[in-house]
Predict the 3D structure of the following.
Amino acid sequence: MTPYSYPGLNVESNESILNQAIWKVLSIPHFSHLTPEEVLSKSRHTPISQAKHVLRCFLFNRTKSKSITASILGCDHSTVINSLKRVEDMEVGNPQLYKQIISKL
C-alpha cells in the first residue's frame, strides 16, 4: 500500500479522486486563476492556502475519513481537521465564497 492509496481502490483511482477534487476547487470562481500545481504546492499565500483548505474539505467529503484524506495528500490528519474548521469559518468571514464551496459539495 502506498501512502497515497485509498483502501479498497488502486493507485489510479486515488489519482482520479485527487484530480476530480482539484478541478472541483478550480471551478470555483475565487480560485479559477490558480493552477493544479499551485493548489498542491507548499505556498502559504492566502488564495492558495484557501484553495488547499477547500481541497481537503472536498476530499474529506468524498472519503469520509480524515486519515485517508491526509494520506492521499501527504499531510497529517490534524491538517485536515484544521482545514475543515477553516472552511466552516468562511461561513462568517466570506459568506459568498462559502456558498460557492457548499454548492460544489
